[in-house]
Amino acid sequence: MTSTTSARNQAVAAAISQFGKVARLRELLALGISTRQLRGAVEQGTVVQVARGHYGLPGVSSMDIHLASYQARRTCLSRVSELGLWQLHEPEKVHVAAAHGRPIPGCVVHKRPAGQTLMGILRQCVACGSELEGLITLESAVVAKMCTIFDLQVEFTRRGDRAARAIVEMIDPQSMAITETVGRYHLRMAGHNVQGQAYVRNAGHLDLLVDGVLGVEVDGREFHDTENGWREDLRRDTMYVLRGVWRLRIPAEVVLYHPEIMLAWVSQALAMIRSAPRLR
Fold first, then answer.
1. What InterPro entries does its record include (predicted)?
2. pTM score
């Protein structure tokens, strides 16, 4: 394969990726991809023809092929992970956009045109998901700089957008991970004052600071189960003690999927702080 052919094939794959895993022939033609390029990319295995007039990337799932046969594609809560946004749970049924709006087996159908904007997808997530799911999706879009809080405020100005506007008010653009967002949400719903990424001199930033006195660090293996991560955690633990900061270290899976345990630990720690003798 020549470098020119390889570049053409990659251009085809990049064009398909703009629509997810599968794109229609007419969408690719509109982007300047020729039928000759498509044939060449299929012959080289760069892309696959998954249905009549539909082309996909290698490894495309059977569900995406199923959707292509119904002229539909993933959207709403079934699209967020594909966009690189945070997600707590995959929806039980695949949410899809289809201009025809007809039922599709195993799917929740949104009667929408094939080409959807980010704001359109975020709006669907807020409408279909819980308040927490909506917050996770919107906040991750802001953190990833895919949109701004102002963009969201402009988007959610309709009469029926009161719940969405309340979610936008909860967004913390300094959030570093889904664990912080979920932990902050549950703690605030329990009546606590919570500050994200609170700075402690010589120690660094706490994931969450509860009621101004209790630090909460949410630990996941990705960042902490390494030699450097372990050494940094030891250093920070020492600095927090020297700065007189109470702190809990809570596993990420507890915060994400068992928040009642996190809330119980926080309540116990706050009770101990209140009963501890104050230094004069």
1. AbiEi_N (IPR025159)
2. 0.84
Structure tokens at 277: 């003798």
Q: What are 62-74's pLDDT values in tens digits?
A: 898 888 888 888 9
Q: Is residue 64 part of a domain?
A: no
User: Are the C-beta atoms of 96 and 44 separated by less than 8 Å?
Assistant: no
The tens digit of pLDDT for each residue in 52-111 reads 888 999 889 889 888 888 888 899 999 999 899 999 999 999 999 999 999 999 999 999
Q: How far is the CA of 75 from the CAs of 25, 88, 98, 143, 179, in angstroms?
A: 19, 16, 9, 20, 24
- Tally Cβ neighbours within 10 Å of residue 87: 20
**Alpha helix stretches (DSSP H) within 18-117:** 25-30, 35-44, 62-69
List the structure tokens of 168: 């936008």
At residue 192, what is the residue type?
H
47/94 same-domain check? no
| In a shared domain, residues 207 and 265 | yes
Its domain, for residue 191, covers 178-275
